[in-house]
Structure prediction request, 51 residues.
Amino acid sequence: MLDPVCDMTVDLDEAREAGLTMELGDREYAFCGEGCLKAFAKRLAAQGSKR
Ligand SMILES: [Zn+2]
Prediction:
């Protein structure tokens, strides 16, 4: 699975155990670290506030 922020390959099971996944609709995203998880959340928040 690809980290949507830095394009690094992330093991979904490991990311789940580390709490580094995010579900969005019917898709699940996994991140290499907390930094990318936060960056992704920030990006979503920025997109949401545009509407
Ligand atoms: Zn990353």
Remarks:
- The CA atoms of residues 18 and 33 lie 9 Å apart.
- The chain has a mean pLDDT of 94.
- The chain has one domain: 12-50.
- The helical segments are 12-17, 34-50.
